[in-house]
Amino acid sequence: MRVRSLFISDVHLGCGFSRSRELFEFLGRFEPDHLYLVGDIVDGWKLKRNFVWSDTASFVVRRILGMLKRGTRVFYATGNHDEFLRGFSPHAFGNIELADEFVHETASGRRLLVIHGDRFDQVTRHARWVYHLGDRAYTAALHVNSWMNTARRALGYPHWSFSAALKKKVKTAVNFINDFEGFVARYTEQQGCDGVICGHIHVPAVRRIGGIDYYNCGDWVEHCSALIEHGDGTIELVDFHAFQRDQPLLPGLFAGDEQAA
User: Is the pLDDT of residue 254 over 70?
Assistant: First the structure.
């Protein structure tokens, strides 16, 4: 499927819960002019402990390199889990452009700020130890996800995210999300942009906040979601499962990916 732009974030390659197999298959259904990697693509925090680099993580990297070879422009906006890259920002690695944030102009002329979003997370900025504690609790919730979905698959039920449902129900999590979105929207307005594409909180969303179009890519740990810009400049939130049903793999893609590795 030819699209103007594809935006993904929070893949967390190197984390045992990264849905890299699904992302590999998802990327195989698109030929984007622009690919934006909106932070936390690699989980640098896991380099210190419990780092798991699967074959499918390598396949994802190979597929992105294949896109580069076929002419896709690739932009990498750094996040907090891959903040080790910020020492090299702004820079270019081969044909991959690296920066803390970008401004993307859509086909319809809108200016969209592309930023991971961790700088607007007050816990990340001012109480890092609390954030790491929360990260461990989140990991525990992902373990529950894994156990539950193993049982659900055995019974013929579709995937369901316990951790995502929990975030929607817990009042403090809802307040945190609302605060985050408000901070992001205000900063975007200050930069003179029409909208923002971000990640970080693992909550896919498309909404209007004041005069700002707010888009969150979601993640590839719980939701397997991404944002697409179509040829007319409209932005659509999509998920892997829908495109798995509706979009075939592009012919010859595997051969091109292997040559790019």
Answer: no
